[in-house]
Amino acid sequence: MIHWLKQLRSAFGVAFLWLVCLIYFTQGFRSFVWTAVSYQLKDRLQLSPSASQFVFSVAFFPWSIKPLYGIISDCIPIGGKKRTPYLVISTVLSLVPWLLLGLDSTSRSSSLYLMIFLTVQNLGSAMADVVIDAMIAEAVRIDKSSFAGDLQSVSWFAMAVGGICGSLLGGYALNNLNIETIFLLFTVLPALQLLSCALVEEIPSNEPLPELLDSNEFEEKSKMSNDTYPDTKKSNTRRRKGQKKGKKGASSGKSEITQKKQSKSLASKLFQSLKTAALELCRAFKQPIILRPMAWFFIAHITVPNLSTVMFYYQTEVLLLDASFLGTARVVGWLGLMLGTFIYNRYLTNMTLRKSLLFAHIGLSITILLDMVLVSRANVGYGVSDKTMVLFGSALGDAINQLKFMPFLILSGRLCPPGIEGTLFALFMSINNLGNTVGSFMGAGLASLLGISSGSFENMFVGLAIQVFCTYIPVLFLFLIPKEATGVSAS
């Protein structure tokens, strides 16, 4: 273990490894503060379950447009750098909302302001996630490619540790601290992340912007990404002329005109660079081998209404489970996620993806049935406590969700064509996130339609029954998944 860590340190440097681990740890530790947000919406703002779920759905929308951040950072360098400036910007966007929510009582007392600040915070977190993924991809390129799996393992481990710590400490903090204090405490991590950005040196990129392509040229040149870039002398000349401006008074007028033309040319190239990247992405995504599987995963999310927020209300108001216990349940969920990853990698990689996804949805319907048993109080008649049901359901649910997510990761990794792997993979993840967001909207709509609200859970059983039925709708579309694809090979 120590030898392995020394190898990573010598390959990537302490500063880079520290930054990667810190960012992923912070992503996992977000459960510390988002538990407080759930209680803020329920207890202080007294929102209904459907209203709370709507707030969460809107707030997490920035995770659904991750490719946009990747395209912008790839095509529009800041000071010649594509990564660290955007990492600083994203960290500031993650830091400031929690700081304001902790210091300003008005911002956290209004559901609208709270939703806006949470959306901005998620914008920063999602952008940081894209940038650090790009930095990892660049770090392992060429001579360090053998460390790719090791670096991913470190990042996932850091996030898991952050999730466990955040869940444990979040429940304890809610029982002993004010919510505003929790918001302020969480700012320590993004502040530390902001300072850590200065430790990583990024070499300014000399890659010029893509040429202006017409539709016919794009079709041909998109296949040869190395030939899509022009010479950079004009942009360098523009900067040199900008520095000389004002030194020669007699030629200042001509210099201004020249600078305006060159500035317009640069803006045109920036726009065309963004356009070219977007067209390449769309062209790759429209291929049936990519479009069909991604369509299935999107359908699998939007056809199953997400009632997690409603269950949170039920667990706290009817079952009277405290924040500390719910934090423990989330830790058990993280352990279930790790167990699901281990089971898939150890026993299910040779199973066809169609079959593993079928079993995953059968398992998901069973976890919802357990919730129905909990809501009907049938477990009490058999001497099974509510806490046991919640802990078991949390572990089983997260394990099965991971069994479903692993095929998604496998297909996403294999379907990405060379040259745009990072951006296209970000698009795949965004489809997954967008599906989750739409599923949350569907859950909020279902709860509102059934009249499920705080203190009124009579139709909760019906809502869960509908959710069980919807779980099998994606099974009808499994033909979209490649027939012989497995966790080892795809065809």
From TrEMBL:
UniProt lineage: Eukaryota, Viridiplantae, Streptophyta, Embryophyta, Tracheophyta
GO cellular component, as recorded: membrane
Family named by the database record: Belongs to the major facilitator superfamily. Folate-biopterin transporter (TC 2.A.71) family.
Main localization, broad class: membrane
Keywords recorded for this protein, A-Z: Membrane, Transmembrane, Transmembrane helix, Transport
Basic residues biased stretches: 235-248
InterPro entries per record: BT1 (IPR039309), FBT (IPR004324), MFS_trans_sf (IPR036259)
Localization per Swiss-Prot or TrEMBL: Membrane
Name of the protein in question: Probable folate-biopterin transporter 4
Regions crossing the membrane: 12-34, 84-100, 112-132, 153-175, 295-314, 326-345, 357-378, 390-411, 423-449, 461-481
Biased composition (Basic and acidic residues): 218-234
Originating species: Raphanus sativus
Keyword Chaperone in record: no
